[in-house]
Specification:
Largest sheet: 9 strands, mixed
Number of helices: 10
CATH class of the largest domain: Alpha Beta
Strand order of the largest sheet: 3-6-7-2-8-1-9-10-11
Order of helices and strands: EHEHEHEEHEEHEHEHEHEHH
CATH topology of the largest domain: Rossmann fold
Distance between the termini: 13 Å
Structural class: alpha/beta
CATH architecture of the largest domain: 3-Layer(aba) Sandwich
Shape: elongated
């Protein structure tokens, strides 16, 4: 089973919800938490652990053997990214920053060995055992790289390979293709939002994406005591979603965030929000 914590706007508290939910749900399921916000992963920080068991993620990068190349231009013609250009005589050259690693050029090349397999380091994945009874899989894009999709795919596959009962996914902000890939196969999406104009706007986007993917969506309102929830209620009704939890803006949550001690482990009243939400998720998944 897979559920995902997402939300269009950055900074709404997705990681806070994901990490606290993981701790609350581990009493019911043998689970793994996957941090697929590969450009800014921070679940390990909130859980107070150091990343472990690093594995490199390499992207296919073609290398040309000009002694075998017949200058037919097929590699350039098939390249959808226009990463391969050719000189007047047909000699191919690669622009690495544009290459997506699809290997189409190697497939269509009529001369065996004219295009060789090179590799480019794109980032890393990590498998970290947490003190809370579940592992954390983290994807991290190499600084300066632009293509996050390979890291998301590798990290998600590494999490699935653990064959746990439940995969809990923490996605990046927005509704990009990497977010869609992270949401793929989810039985439930927990959309985290806040009562601000941008929060409402981006909530609409993520609920629309959930609707297109035909996945049920629940809404969690963070900083709910700031007021102005009417628009959030309107958006959720529009997409037949439902508000399942409201997290108040509180000093207790801020202190837990800064201290790296999840609020769900405390005796504060805010902990009950996550415990109750975990209970509703269990009912949904088992029902």
């Amino acid at each position: 089973m897979q559920i995902a914590v997402s939300g269009g706007k950055g900074g709404t508290g997705k990681s806070t919800v994901a990490t606290n939910l993981a701790i609350a749900l581990k009493d019911y399921f043998d689970l793994v938490l996957a941090d697929l916000d590969v450009e800014a992963p921070n679940d390990h920080i909130l859980l107070g652990v150091e990343l472990q068991n690093e594995e490199a993620v390499n992207l296919f990068m073609p290398r040309f053997d000009y002694t075998k190349c017949i200058k037919c231009r097929r590699c350039a013609e098939v390249c959808e990214e226009n990463a391969i250009i050719t000189m007047k005589d047909g000699t191919p050259f690669l622009m690495p920053t544009l290459c997506s690693g699809c290997a189409a050029c190697e497939i269509v090349c009529p001369v065996g060995g004219a295009i060789l397999e090179g590799k480019k380091l794109m980032g890393h994945t990590y498998l970290t055992e947490t003190p809370y009874g579940f592992p954390l899989i983290t994807g991290r894009l190499l600084e300066g790289e632009e293509r996050a999709m390979p890291i998301v795919v590798y990290a998600k596959n590494r999490a699935k390979a653990l064959e746990k009962e439940l995969l809990l996914v923490d996605t990046a902000a927005g509704t990009s293709n990497t977010v869609s890939k992270a949401l793929e196969d989810s039985e439930l999406i927990i959309a985290v939002t806040e009562p601000t104009p941008l929060g409402v706007h981006d909530l609409g986007l993520i609920l629309e994406l959930a609707d297109l993917m035909d996945v049920e969506a629940w809404v969690v309102i963070n900083r709910s005591n700031l007021g102005g929830k009417e628009e959030i209620e309107r958006i959720t009704r529009r997409y037949n979603a439902k508000i399942v939890a409201e997290i108040p803006y509180s000093e207790n949550i801020i202190r837990s965030y800064v201290g790296g001690i999840p609020i769900v482990l405390s005796e504060h009243e805010e902990a009950a929000v996550f415990k109750n939400l975990a209970g509703e998720i269990v009912k949904y998944l088992e029902g």
